[in-house]
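Sequence, please.
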């Protein structure tokens, strides 16, 4: 196996493991992984529209509409009129939604417990280098061919 194939396989496996753990943590708080992702995005970007949220999560507006509707019915998300544009509806996470988020991504989550348990296996320097390499790969993979690197 060449280096590029091995890198791709490694990221696929990491993604698979990551999503399996997120799925477990979402299920533990009684929501789907997509709902968890939406709540997390809303917590990071309060008072955004449905279309803005769909764009940030890379879901279609129609898919996002259904997800948000279920989250509103569950009391995890609220819709209200924008103060800037009274015609627009903006979304924000309720206290109940924040609670689900804090449990699903908190220290008791499967994902966080496993990271914490294995933390001693990586030095601070290795973590910084890993993050640097990830950022560099993101830059490489998101730069158009022929476009100069920044």
């Amino acid at each position: 196996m060449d280096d590029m194939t091995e890198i791709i396989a490694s990221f696929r496996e990491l993604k698979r493991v990551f999503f399996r753990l997120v799925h477990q943590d979402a299920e533990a708080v009684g929501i789907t992984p997509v709902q968890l992702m939406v709540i997390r995005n809303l917590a990071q970007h309060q008072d955004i529209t449905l279309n803005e949220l769909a764009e940030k999560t890379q879901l279609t507006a129609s898919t996002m509409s259904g997800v948000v509707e279920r989250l509103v019915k569950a009391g995890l998300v609220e819709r209200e009129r924008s103060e800037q544009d009274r015609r627009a509806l903006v979304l924000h996470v309720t206290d109940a939604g924040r609670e689900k988020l804090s449990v699903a991504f908190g220290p008791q989550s499967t994902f966080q417990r496993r990271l914490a348990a294995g933390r001693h296996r990586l030095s601070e320097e290795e973590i910084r280098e890993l993050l640097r390499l990830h950022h560099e790969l993101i830059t490489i993979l998101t730069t158009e061919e022929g476009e100069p690197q920044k």
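The first helix runs from residue 3 to 28.
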